[in-house]
Amino acid sequence: MYLVSQFCLYEQWLNQPAQLVDSALLQLCLSFDAPRLTSLICEHTGLLMLLISNPDNWPLMPNCSGSSSPPAFTYPELQPDYCQYSEWHDAMQITTDILSKCILIDQSGFAREVCQNKTFLNSLLQNKEIAWLESHCSTSMISPSPGPMQSFNLAAWCDYHNWAEKQVDDSVVGLCWQNDQVAFQEKVCCKAAVFEKLLENPLNKWLTSVCTDMEQITVTPQVCKYSDWTHPIIVDMTDLALCAEIDPQNFTSKVCANSTVLQNLLANPDNTWLIRHCSNYSVIPTPGGQTIRPGFSASEQCLYSRWITSFPNATLLAQCWEKDQANFISFICPDAGILLFLSREPSTAWVSRICKAYINSTTTEPNHCASETLIKQLSLMCPDYLCQPCASQNTVLQMMVHCWVKSVNSRMEGLLTTPVAEVLNRAVAASVVILLAVEDSVGPIWQVNTTIRQSALTSVVDYLQREINQNRKKVLLQCFGTVLSNLLQMSRDVTGSELLLIKEYLNLPLSSLKPVLTAAHISTVKLILQYYNSFMSTIQLSKEYQSTMVSVILKTHLATDSNLLLDLGSLLVAVSPDDVKTFPSLQNNDKLRKTINANLGWMSLALREAFGLWYGKILSPSNITGGNQSLIRDTGNLIAYLPFHLFQHLSAAQLLDGLDVLQRNTLSPLKQVFMANKLIGTYRNMTAQDLVRLGNVLCLAEARDLFVYKNTEVFQVIQEIIMNCTLSGLSMPSQLHSDLILSNPEFQNPSSLSSVRLEEIAPLLPSLGITFLNGLSASQLLAALPALSTIPFTPTQASVIVDKLLTNARIPDQLEELGSLIVGVKTETLLSLTSDRLLSAMKAFVQHTPARCRPYMSVLCAPEANAIATKLWGFPQVVSWLDDVEPMLRWTPLICILSRTQLLVKNLSNTTTKHWKTQQAQAIVKAVNTYTNQTKPNFLSLGTLFQGVSCKDLQLLFQADRSPSFVRRILALLRHQPGLLHTALKRCVIEEVYPLQFFADLLQDLGAEIALCIPMDIIRLFPADKMDILRKMIVASPQYFLMLTRMQQEIIVDKIIQRMNMYTGPFTEEEFRSLDIMAPFVADEVFIQVDRSFFTKNLDYLQKLCYSSSKMELVARILQEPAVFGPVKNWNQETLTVVGRFLFFLPSKVLQDLPSSLMTVGRIEKLFMSQRQWEDSDVGILCSDKNETKDVFGKQQSVLQFFLGFLKMDYSSLPPIVPTCEILHTTAPSAWPSSSFNSMSSSHFSNCLELIGQDPFLESYQRIEILKRVKKIYGPVSSFSQSVIAQLGGIAVELSPEELGTLRLTERRSISALGALNTWNKRQLAALFTVVLSSTKLTPSKLDSSMLVALGHIVCGAQIAEINTFNNVEFSKAVLWLGKLNLPCSEEQMGALVGLLTHSLAFGFMSSWGTDVFIEIGVLAAGLPDFAMSSLVKEQIEGISPMAMSMIPPKKFSVVFHQNQINMFTYEQAYALTPQQRSALNDVQKRAIDMVLTCWKRKIDLSAGLAQSHSLLCIILGLLMVLAILL
């Protein structure tokens, strides 16, 4: 009992709660004082909580399930002096600390002596600092006295079903966990509400370590039982190695620094590696007083002659065996006395066996014992199996396997987690795995794999096919991948069971694919690829699945075997461009090149270009110029995607020989121009066959090179090719049209053309214009209708044709035959059609190229789209027509959907597959919640409706299941929605996933759209690897980055390049390409350092990107550097071709220094076309900034007018060129001086009137001159036809109110053309609204939704009284379009308009409006009354568009929005505010706005690990942003 009295001081443990009780000490006390200590642990929660605060003590805790309640007295040894209650005379001296300790260690005594003694309790309560005592005593359970207490009622204490609703004492939590672990795991750990409630108490944080998924149980507590190692024990070497690797800190302190443990472990000779491992310590003490020091010297330590009197300890013995084996054997093995002594101690008995084995091995007749050898090789401890005479190998194997099974089974119980052990037992017998592993360890001695491979493989396959738990399959394939690979044949012909096993890898869920493939053996990976490429036609894998699969293989296994690239086969299409950059140099491998060539056609353009860059690394210009004429054919498709600086070295002969290869690939515009000029310019006698092979590339040649073929047999071929180019939408210089095509005399008399000839020239009809179309008869058009229905006519041109066709009664019945001509059908005609006629035509409409219908891009203009949508959705049967009406959903008003939600919910399986708008999806999801009992699985089946899930719904989903797999399922569903996600939903996702512990691992799953909504003060904390993931996502999906404001773009890029350390040194090609779309948004000081060689060689790539004004200036400066192209006066034709649209980045004065001989009309047209081609690209559409676009246009105008002679004062020069309609199409009407329009012929002017009217850059002085010409051709304003009015566009703004009053606006097409303009003044608007009513003979109350849509901005010309008479339902159907316009209405008009929407048949009371309604009404939200706006809640504010925010009158804004509401704004809403609005705010409101703008300041809990304070950088950037807005 001496040890107990010295070490088991329980009272001292309680007095020092900050000092953890070591597991070794606890084990000692349990060994010598078990009854008393067990009783104390089970009966005193305070001691229990103290002990389990050290996880190492968990395995030692006693079972208290049978323990009774403590007796009504306390243990004297646990009562310190200050718990002598009879001596508590001065209440002011009794502190909270004393009371707490006494309550903790003497619960029963404290309750009896203090709480039950009311007089004593009241005296103590005089001390106000311990007033809490009264509450404690009133709620504490008091043991009845006298007599024994009732038995402990576990169910009463552990009433888990009430824990989510009340505060549970932390001691009760610990008690229930200790005594009721099974129920605790189910009812606490697995119940999110209960678990999160308990975690609110900091004292319960320990729950996060015990409430883990059983699959996540760490191996440390089960294997690294340091407390067990203090006793003599044989510990497996693999266990020790595992602990040393995964738990180095504890291993070092509890093994290397503990001589007792170290000596015990060295009893196993396989553990002698510990000596080296622990040699980092200057001295490793041993119990015998000897030490082992680094730099062990056998001559000094291994003094064998002294061992007969002073026996060595186990540590020194093992050291000498390892370091001095020869002398050890010669001195010790022959000495029977020493061997006898050593054999008596378990820790040194191994010496006798080793010496015996050594002596036997050196005899003339060796007696090899296979079982013992295997046991040693495999580190097995089998004391019951000593070496016996071996009759046969089978006997040996049987003995060894028996030993192994016993060892592995015992090890499974302590080492493998429950799922792994279960899968191993269920999938295949342990003996099979052992046999295979034995063979893997010792070589093919037993031929085990050959003997049992097929039966074992069949067993595994049977298990995998029966097992429905995907997680168990994952465990088997991941944890036993090496053994499974041994079962598979390594031949190229895999059949039978091998195929079935490989198939299981491809049946894994996406979430399991990465870990399984990472752990797979290289041979297994090869078989998977072989199987996929053999059966890919029957294997349906998503693009995301293929991409993940290839990414893992490349990153994990490519370094091991570069030939994996050959095995990828068709999966090369799933490689990312970033991965291609890391490919090994295998460009000269013919098989790999052929595989890439065969799969290029299915790759994205970005991936093809990445392969071109990779292949170009081995080529130089000399390799190309010195190559064979058949170089292109020999190389194959890859050569088409070489960088232009290499491609331009191909000769004309090589190009002509490889033309077929180049034509079947997608060449960049620059390469096509190079090909055209190289071939046409080199060969002057090309045959018709050669020209046909050139195809559309011919249209990019210089006109002068094609004119040499005029009056030859091949000229007709050239004309046909140019017509095909027109049909495909390829832009060409006007001279090709006018001189080679349109000059044909037969076009002067349209009525003389046969229907066959009309079909042949159909692609040219849009270029021939309205004057030509007016000359055609209805019979001509009807005969050629099949050809005409595929041509992209403008709305005005289409209306001319349709008006002629509608004179034939047959056409309305065959509306679908109109094809793309539908854009010319009057709205009035569409409204008169029946639903079945409209439905029959819908499929045909959407199959044709959409026409540009401003301000929307659609095959239909706004009034027509509204008419069709509202008409079809007026029928309840529309729910069964969803497949046909889906193309119109984007133009379907919300009010139409609301009336059909119940039917849509009944047909939910079909509803969830359609492309709904956000507000439509939100309305339907609300109905789903109303009409169904929605559960978590059902939410995940919402499909395309999931974009409409509310933040509340999303929060409930995450609360129900926060597992990584479930969170990833939600994020995957969000990534695959058909349209853009609403900002509120993205913000909600960030708020929910950011606090998760595995948030950092979810970045890839978020996708670029959601990831770019992460607040900047989180992004700036990303480590380098996470920042790189963000970079890759932006590069892969650049559209979301381009939708950000310039300030946001620059801040994000700044953070990324900081992590990439790119602020110093040159801006290399690798860095530039890695940023891709983001590269032009780096800081100016970084961009100016761009590698000049890369810049010069890759201008075609650089021109695709987006540049701010400052970067345009830097590009212009770089272009003129001597090392690049030098001064512009020295530029040549090749330079202009390569520079392309970058020419317009140069200052206007510099542009005038260009050689005038180069700046021909054709060259100027091509420069304009290159800029327009970029503006119409995906990047250009999203990149265009209004001010930057206007600056570029100003330089375009300067170039055209200067080099075409309009700005020169030299009277000896030729007169300025007179523009044709064709050249206005290739340039821009506004680029020409106003006088040019007076010089145009009437036919050219009329044909281009629609184009001129749509030009956004026309100045007032130009519009005035154009209007004069219009009046001269078409007569006074009062005589303008509906067609002329529709073509006027912006020109009409120059009409006076009096002139507008004389117009006849009878058709929606003409009204819509004027209603789309936003530059009318108030008098003009009033005149227009009045003339619409008088022309249509309608009253305001009779205006239907399509008419209101056509009115557009003209709605603001109505008086308040007139607005109040609008039909509420019709107006609610029109609000989808009107809400997108920047309406110039007064505050009173806006209020009246929004008031119409509150009708019960519209959207009802404003207080009931949700996010969906606010999204739908758009800018009309600015008209909400003050009271309603000041009462808006978060859900409603989230639906207000940024434009609507900017339109709220400044004074009204400052009155209605208080600080808390402003805090709910999104960044986009705050950024949209005007300087006038900001200046009207008070200081508190301004600070709230600044906080929203500053670094996307998040409104989520930062307790997950990041600081809450604003960084200085964030504050500075925010202030600069605010200053920029104000200025």
Describe the protein's architecture and organization.
With 1527 residues, the chain is mostly helical. Helices cover 57% and strands 1% of the residues. The radius of gyration is 42 Å and the shape is globular. It starts with a helix and ends with a helix.
Q: Which features would summarize this protein structure in a list?
A:
single chain; 1527 residues; mainly alpha; two-stranded antiparallel ribbon; 4 strands; disordered C terminus
Biggest sheet record = 2 strands, antiparallel
Uncertain stretches of 5 or more adjacent residues: 68-79, 141-152, 213-221, 281-294, 364-371, 373-398, 408-416, 424-431, 438-449, 854-859, 1497-1527
Number of strands: 4
Beta percentage is: under 5%
- Spatial strand arrangement across the major sheet: 1-2
Question: If you average the pLDDT, what whole number results?
Answer: 80
SSE class: mainly alpha
Entry summary:
By secondary structure, the protein is mainly α. Strand 1 and strand 2 form a beta hairpin. Helix 26 (370-377) runs parallel beside helix 27, helix 58 (862-872) packs antiparallel against helix 91 (1345-1351) and helix 89 (1308-1315) crosses helix 91.
Topology:
Blueprint: H1 2-7, H2 10-15, H3 23-32, H4 34-43, H5 45-52, H6 96-105, H7 107-115, H8 118-124, H9 132-139, H10 154-157, H11 160-163, H12 170-179, H13 181-189, H14 192-199, H15 207-210, H16 220-223, H17 237-246, H18 248-256, H19 259-265, H20 273-277, E1 284-285, E2 291-292, H21 298-301, H22 314-323, H23 325-332, H24 336-343, H25 350-361, H26 370-377, H27 393-414, H28 418-427, H29 430-442, H30 448-466, H31 470-479, H32 481-487, H33 497-506, H34 510-519, H35 522-535, H36 543-557, H37 564-568, H38 577-581, H39 590-599, H40 605-616, H41 621-625, H42 631-635, H43 644-647, H44 652-657, H45 659-663, H46 669-682, H47 688-694, H48 703-706, H49 715-727, H50 734-742, H51 755-760, H52 765-774, H53 778-783, H54 785-788, H55 795-805, H56 827-832, H57 835-846, E3 852-853, E4 856-857, H58 862-872, H59 882-885, H60 894-898, H61 901-906, H62 908-911, H63 918-931, H64 936-939, H65 951-960, H66 964-975, H67 983-993, H68 1003-1011, H69 1016-1019, H70 1024-1036, H71 1038-1042, H72 1046-1059, H73 1069-1075, H74 1084-1087, H75 1092-1097, H76 1099-1102, ...
Antiparallel strand pairs: 1-2, 3-4
